[in-house]
Amino acid sequence: EAGKAAGIMGMIGISEGAIPFAAGDPARVLPAIVAGGIVGNVIGFMFHVMNHAPWGGWIVLPVVDGKIGYIIGTIAGSVTTALIVIALKKTVTEDESYKDHSQVYGSVQGEGEADVLAVTSCPSGVAHTFLAAKSLEKAACALGIKIKVETQGANGVINRITEKDIEKAKFVIFAHDVAIKEPERFRKIKVLDVTNKDAMLNATALLQARRVS
């Protein structure tokens, strides 16, 4: 999926969209971006392309001399970036990594065992969803609090919170930047609504604010 995204964003010039990928996996993404840029520039040089805009992508085609060469160069560069991202693909997926960390940090997997519940979700359904979950789990482990975190990610819901969980827990943390799915499930429990950034940076403070005795 990251490889597809890299190819598409490279061709249309949405460089900002690559920032979460690069920040979350720089060892894989940054070399791919550099290699793709080199390939695109070399091909552009061979076709005597001149770009009069201070940025790239196909949106600048109207001010480019040598449009055919420019298009070929951007396609070749984007494909190169995408292929390298795919070739250097992590052996552990985000979901597998999350499950491993859940076990390390003591996230509850069973029903009705958690003191605190949490649901995390973000626009991409990948990076911030799992980073927020890991931060909450790690903080809960350090505080001696049993927590169960449901992630609403790109691959669906993981570690789903049940009615029994809700009956036993004291409150739930919504850490999200998009709407939480099925929020009506939590109508009978206190909700602490925060952003993913809050959960990643202030997990301990959030748990201590309503710490379970």
Characterise the protein shown here.
- The protein has 2 domains: 2-87, no CATH class; 95-209, 3-Layer(aba) Sandwich (Rossmann fold), CATH 3.40.50.
- The chain is elongated and about 70 Å long.
- Helix 3 runs antiparallel to helix 4 and helix 5 (94-105) packs parallel to helix 6.
- The chain has helices at 2-12, 19-24, 26-46, 67-87, 94-105, 127-143, 163-168, 196-201, 203-209, and strands at residues 50-51, 64-65, 116-121, 147-153, 156-158, 171-176, 190-194.
- It is built from 9 helices and 7 strands.
- The protein is of the alpha/beta class.
- Strands 5-4-3-6-7 form a 5-stranded mixed sheet.
**CATH-defined superfamily of the largest domain:** Response regulator
Q: Uncertain segments of ≥5 residues (pLDDT<50)?
A: 1-9, 11-20
Q: State the major sheet.
A: 5 strands, mixed
Strand content: 5-15%
**Which series of helices and strands comes N to C?**
HHHEEHHEHEEHEEHH
* Helix fraction bin: 40-55%
Based on CA atoms alone, the radius of gyration comes out at 22 Å
Number of strand elements: 7
- The strand line-up of the biggest sheet is 5-4-3-6-7
CATH architectural category of the largest domain: 3-Layer(aba) Sandwich
Which fold does the CATH topology of the largest domain refer to? Rossmann fold
